[in-house]
Amino acid sequence: MPHTQQPQTQELTVDVVVIGGGAVGENAAQYTIEGTDLTAVIVEGHLLGGECSYYACMPSKALLRPLDVAGTSADVDGVSPARLDHGGMLERRDSFVSNYDDSSQVEWAESAGIQVVRGHARLVGERTVRVDDSAALTITARHSVIIATGSEPKIPAEFEGAEPWTSADATGVVEIPERLAIVGGGVVACEAATWLSGLGSHVTLLVRGSGLLSDNEPFAGQTVLDGMKAHGVDAVFNASVTSCTRENPEPTGLGKIHGGAVQLKTSAGDFEVDEVLVATGRAPRLSDLGLDAVSVTSDQVLGDNLPDWLHAVGDASGDVPLTHWGKYRARVVGAKIRATATGAPEPFPVEGPPVPQVIFTEPQVAQVGLTEAAARDQGIEAVTAEVPYNSTAGAALLRNDVPGRAKIVVDRSTRRLVGATFVGPEAGEQLHAATIAITGQIPVHVLRHAVPSYPTVSEMWLRLLEEVPEEFRRPAD
Ligand SMILES: Cc1cc2nc3c(=O)[nH]c(=O)nc-3n(C[C@H](O)[C@H](O)[C@H](O)COP(=O)(O)OP(=O)(O)OC[C@H]3O[C@@H](n4cnc5c(N)ncnc54)[C@H](O)[C@@H]3O)c2cc1C
Ligand SMILES: NC(=O)c1ccc[n+]([C@@H]2O[C@H](COP(=O)([O-])OP(=O)(O)OC[C@H]3O[C@@H](n4cnc5c(N)ncnc54)[C@H](O)[C@@H]3O)[C@@H](O)[C@H]2O)c1
């Protein structure tokens, strides 16, 4: 009688198990063990380095930078406009994603003393994780298990069966669709519209709301929209997709066109395109993780209401889904676990540091802390100052045409900055000064003594602070 050979089961005990080896999981493991004898394992089901390295931040920014350089070369007198090389752009992307090979990340992890285990991990009991790969492995954590499983795209039901593109296809683009619809008006939609129209697609944005980038100051979405229109992108607002069908939908592979023509019915009319990219947000990846086995619900993970041996970081935790923010939180969690496990003092906490974000559109949108609307929603008496991005000699030197604006939001009661937005060429490089001012809780009368160099774009800070009411030039009584 034939018999099935049982897979070999192995066992391993370490101090900390991290499920998910994205940038955030890597940081959590590194900060938990560094400078100690603690041991850590990262279990990764796909590529060590996660979404950011292979399917999100790095490939998208690798594709966007040549457009920025070409745009600048076309807008500075005395320079001949640079010609885009579409094949070269894709090669640059391939190089930034290491051709989807994670061996250098594995080398880094091992050099940091972190063991990497391949396979899908599930919780099977308190402090216990089972990894299913070619052979089953059970790992026991002496101290903690950290969930760092990231997030996955939300695909509305209308697109089921139509094999739409997700952002991974857009960053991994191989076949450039002649006509592309992008559903959504958020960050992925705006950045992807920029690089895919730059690669030659005719892009139509189908936006459910009435503007782009609705979480930002209103002038951000408007300036980005103006920039996109100048590059031939069409945007249709108040357009809800009611059905999506296509001939011969097929999972042809990453970045390839997934079948025949796509028919989209929307509340703002019908559209036929060669591909549709669904960019309608992301959700924490918490299914198939064995939460039931340890009597924990997704809500508990998202509410940070977990047993003391279990932690969640990064996109999986429901916190702001940005790489640098997830990594920051992972460093904090890692340092806490290290302190508990070794008896070392916990690092000094800082109250409520602000979240910065740069959106790499043309022009860029850079925002930190609260918008004016968010500050008012929180009951803050917000005083604002706003100037055009081209208000300095440095900005005039940057390009011939400098669109955009800058705005700061000040809390009247503390006289400190609570938010700042810069929209304009290379705006991302303006942001960190604002992040430092908010984190350092510097009152605006002190900020006036931080002198920006002439002739740089950062002289915009002088203009902004001059726009703040006169009474803010002294400490509060
Ligand atoms: C197109 C796009 C562009 C972006 N650009 C930026 C940007 O410019 N700047 C920025 O700050 N943020 C950006 N983001 C957001 C950023 O990518 C995420 O915030 C970041 O990747 C989250 O990191 P993470 O480690 O939490 O999750 P991930 O990077 O998703 O890593 C999670 C890892 O866990 C693994 N995994 C999941 N479940 C299991 C399991 N059960 N067992 C084993 N392994 C498992 C996955 O394979 C994956 O490798 C972008 C996002 C998108 C979609
Ligand atoms: N440069 C960066 O920092 C960067 C770049 C890309 C992505 N990200 C992060 O990744 C996350 C995901 O980005 P995203 O753009 O997918 O999400 P998002 O939340 O920024 O935008 C989602 C968009 O889809 C719309 N939408 C939601 N459901 C819809 C539906 N059923 N039908 C039609 N429209 C719908 C929303 O109104 C919104 O315009 C974001 O939090 C973002 O910050 C960051």
UniProtKB/TrEMBL annotation:
| A Pfam family reported for this protein in Swiss-Prot or TrEMBL | Pyr_redox_dim
**Record has Amino-acid biosynthesis as a keyword:** no
Q: FAD/NAD(P)-binding domain: from which residue to which, for each copy?
A: 15-292
What SUPFAM superfamilies would the database entry show?
FAD/NAD(P)-binding domain, FAD/NAD-linked reductases, dimerisation (C-terminal) domain
Q: Where is the Pyridine nucleotide-disulphide oxidoreductase dimerisation domain?
A: 355-461
> Which keywords fit this entry according to its UniProt record?
FAD, Flavoprotein, NAD
Entry's InterPro entries?
Class-I_Pyr_Nuc-Dis_Oxidored, FAD/NAD-bd_sf, FAD/NAD-binding_dom, FAD/NAD-linked_Rdtase_dimer_sf, Pyr_nuc-diS_OxRdtase, Pyr_nucl-diS_OxRdtase_dimer
Family, according to the entry, reads as follows: Belongs to the class-I pyridine nucleotide-disulfide oxidoreductase family.
Kindly provide the name given to this protein in its UniProt entry: FAD-dependent oxidoreductase
According to its UniProt entry, this protein's organism is: Kocuria atrinae
| Domain of life of the organism encoding this protein | Bacteria
This protein's cofactor list reads:
FAD
